[in-house]
Amino acid sequence: MEPLRVVVLAGGVGGARFVRGLRAHLRSLDGPSADVTVVANTGDDVWLAGLRVTPDLDSLLYTLAGVNDETRGWGRAEETERVAGELAAFGVGWPWFTLGDLDLGTCVARTSMLRDGLPLSAAVQRLAARWPIGVRLLPATDDEVETHVLTDEGELHFEEWWVRTRAALPARAFVQPGVEAARPAPGVVEAIRDADVVLLAPSNPVVSIGTILTIPGIREALAATPAPVVGLSPVIGGSVVRGMADACLTAIGVATDAGAIAQHYGPRSAGGVLDGWLVDEVDAAALPALAAAGIRAGAVPLWMTDDMATAAMAAAALRLAREPR
Q1: Do the Cβ atoms of 3 and 170 come closer than 8 Å?
Q2: For the segment 249-282, what is each residue's pLDDT rounded down to a tens digit?
Q3: Which residues 6+ apart lie within 8 Å of 43 measured at CB?
Q4: What's 287's domain CATH number?
Q5: Is a pLDDT exceeding 90 seen at residue 46?
Q6: Is there a domain that residue 88 lies in?
Q7: Distance (Å, rounded) from C-alpha 20 to C-alpha 310?
Q8: How far apart are the C-alpha atoms of 151 and 164, rounded to whole Å?
Q9: pTM value surpassing 0.90
Q10: Nearest CA among 322, 320, 269 for reference residue 296
Q11: Helices then strands, each counted (H, E), the chain
Q12: Which residues contact 288 (CB under 8 A, 6 or more apart)?
């Protein structure tokens, strides 16, 4: 029997925790091991102090490797910040964007590989080879396509808007300069095309999953794949699970509501990207409207309180994917 081929589109911390739960669920099954490919958002990437920083890729890498800081939710465990302190003393970088020494070590290694001519996808594979993470980790694109935020005070890199202003400065729009010329990283389209199921992690639908979908060729691959595409809501009871995704949703005119986000993604039968959608039990009232719109939906607990709860979420998503379309 062939292994189950699963593709996950994911952002940072929430996406990383979901993939870890998915991995736990798949490892608990009898039969052949699954083949999991994770396509990560690269819109948060930035050049900082001469280093290429890739926040979402690194959150996925550290979480799956078991070396992440569970308390902060990002970065490496048992960090020190001596290098960041030195950089700040020299007036280099962003003083409000602090990376730990171990995290900076990853950035130095990645930047060295990029300077040597490796594409980002190849650099990610070399970095991931250090740990048995159990999945194939791919950037959405090898091209530098960063997410910027248009505000009344000018255009900011997404990380500046997110970290420095804490999304308090109203966003007018999100743009990805140069995205028209970008291409999916090697293996991304092929993985989606050959998948048995595609999952949209409960990540930010605007600047994580949404940014992945702006890369030319990825949305088209989702439309063409014979695999069912199932997403999980990052909103429970009208509140975001993590971060400030509500500010992003407001900027594009979408309510902070599990059903509204599914309608924003849209059903594949009408040019969208979803076949199925999971909401939390408190949002079960959204199910009839989603069914009427052509999206199969279910209601299950979606709080990622631990790996067991997250594994149950992943199992529910896979069950929904198996339902007849």
Answers
A1: no
A2: 999 999 999 999 999 999 999 999 999 999 999 9
A3: 145, 146, 147, 158, 176, 207, 208, 211, 212, 214
A4: 3.40.50.10680
A5: yes
A6: no
A7: 8
A8: 14
A9: yes
A10: 320
A11: 13, 14
A12: none
Q: Cβ(247)–Cβ(268) under 8 Å?
A: no
Do strands 173-175 and 148-151 pair parallel, antiparallel, or not at all (unpaired)? antiparallel
Phi, psi angles (nearest 5°) of residue 96: -90, 0
Residue 53 included in any domain: yes
Please tell me the distance from the alpha carbon of residue 235 to that of residue 237, in angstroms, as a whole number.
7
Backbone angles phi, psi at 127, to 5 degrees: -65, -40
Integer Cα distance of 281 and 77 in angstroms:
33
Whether residue 171 lies inside any domain: the answer is no
The two three-digit tokens of residue 96, written as one number: 């409000």
Rounded CA gap, 185 and 141, in Å? 4
Query: Cα–Cα distance between 172 and 160 in angstroms, integer?
Result: 15
CA–CA gap between residue 99 and residue 76 (Å, rounded): 9
Q: Is the pLDDT of residue 325 over 80?
A: no
Give the sign of the dihedral formed by CA 199, CA 202, CA 208, CA 209.
positive
CA distance to 11, 70, 148, 260, per residue, from 211 (Å): 9, 25, 11, 18
Could you give the number of structural domains in the chain? 1
Map tokens 């990002």 to a residue: 74
Question: Crossing angle for the helix pair 55-65 and 13-27, nearest 10 degrees?
Answer: 30
Domain encompassing residue 314:
5-67+134-145+177-322
Query: Could you report the per-residue pLDDT of 88-119, keeping only the tens digit for each?
Result: 999 999 999 999 999 999 999 999 999 999 99
CA distance 37 to 55: 18
User: In this structure, how many other beta carbons lie within 10 angstroms of the beta carbon of residue 288?
Assistant: 11
Q: Looking at the domain assignment, is residue 215 inside a domain?
A: yes
Kindly tell me the burial class for residue 194, based on how many C-beta atoms sit within 10 Å of its own C-beta (0-12, 13-18, 19 or more): middle
Strand 239-240 relative to strand 235-236, pairing: antiparallel
The C-alpha atoms of residue 14 and residue 242 are separated, in whole angstroms, by 7
Cα gap 317→198, rounded to integer Å = 10
